[in-house]
Amino acid sequence: MTWMVTGGAGYIGSHVLRAFVTAGVPAVAVDDLSTGRAHFVPDGVPLVRGTILDADLLARTIDEHDIVGVVHTAGFKYAGVSVDRPLHTYEQNIEGTRRLLAVMSEHGVDKMVFSSSAAVYGTPDADLVTEATSKNPASPYGESKLVAEWLLAALGRASDLRHTSLRYFNVVGSAYDDVYDASPHNLVPLVLKALTDGQTPRIFGSDYNTPDGTCVRDYIHVGDLAAAHVAAAESLAAGRELQPAYNLGSGEGMSVAQIMQSIRRVSGVDFEPEVHDRRPGDPDRIVASGDTAARDLGWTMSYTVEEMMASAWRAWQAALAATP
Ligand code: UFG
């Protein structure tokens, strides 16, 4: 009854693995360690080192570990960078998913929980994004996630595959002090890095059409996100019907300036962010309803935004302390 977690050594995948361990569900990590870290994989969970583009490695892993389902978090996740690296993004996120599905299909593995993204919506035309909001991805990354969702749906119609896609909004925090978000492109790790490097955190634009002029996003804790994956996997294993996709959002928006204030409070570092020009392509506001996921997956927000920032800060400090 073992689940395979692709990208299992990543920030999100390793949280999913740990949630599986806590739930008593056996799991195996597959990761090429291009951005993941082997030490994020929990003790007792095998790490198979390799890419999801390697069909033989996937087939061997499925056979050797008697895999019954896959949580597919591996992928190239930097929306901004994907604009300059479209072919790489499509190869990793579309071709990688296609190959994985093909091997699963050949080996009778009929359950998949897929890491999708808010990026499928682009700049939404709704104050509160629901799963029915129109999809207008604004980057190769967003397109690749949407196409991968279509691959799952198409194979689901053509075969016994049972699947769901979880569309993440802004994932932050750490549920374990030894796992942290090392993304060089996202707000929270960039602010934490600036603070520990003695630099000034930057706000990209303060003239947006929002209450304080800075962009508003929907922040969710990675521990809650991981629990939703396990709930989805267990639902598929129990034969329950799931929707093709769920938004994992909180329904609440926080501005960049509010996030900065929260980080100031939890870190105890007094700083005044510098306001810079807008970052190209950033929409004013993205906030999503997680109601459907709450109904079907027991999705809840068990952490406040302050706790999200405090946990991110703790894990960041622990990582610094562990670095020789
Ligand atoms: N920001 C700053 N300063 C920084 C870094 C970011 O002000 O140093 C701002 C950004 O301009 C944006 C907000 O903080 O307004 C959040 O930026 P992130 O890069 O953390 O997150 P995004 O909302 O841009 O992106 C997230 C995911 C993407 C996904 C996208 C979908 O990280 O993978 O949502 O909307 F594609």
Description of the structure:
The chain is an alpha/beta fold and 324 residues long. The chain has 2 domains: 2-172 and 219-248, Rossmann fold (3-Layer(aba) Sandwich), CATH 3.40.50; 187-217 and 251-322, Alpha-Beta Complex (UDP-galactose 4-epimerase, domain 1). It contains 10 helices and 13 strands. The chain has helices spanning 11-23, 55-65, 79-82, 86-106, 140-158, 187-196, 222-237, 256-267, 291-297, 305-322; strands spanning 2-6, 27-31, 47-49, 67-72, 111-117, 162-168, 170-172, 202-204, 216-217, 219-221, 245-248, 254-255, 274-276. A 7-stranded parallel sheet has the order 3-2-1-4-5-6-11, sandwiched between helices. A two-stranded parallel ribbon has the order 7-10. Helix 6 packs across helix 8 (256-267). It is globular, with a radius of gyration of 19 Å. The mean pLDDT is 97. The structure holds uridine-5'-diphosphate-4-deoxy-4-fluoro-alpha-D-galactose. The site of uridine-5'-diphosphate-4-deoxy-4-fluoro-alpha-D-galactose has 20 residues, from helix 6 and strand 8.
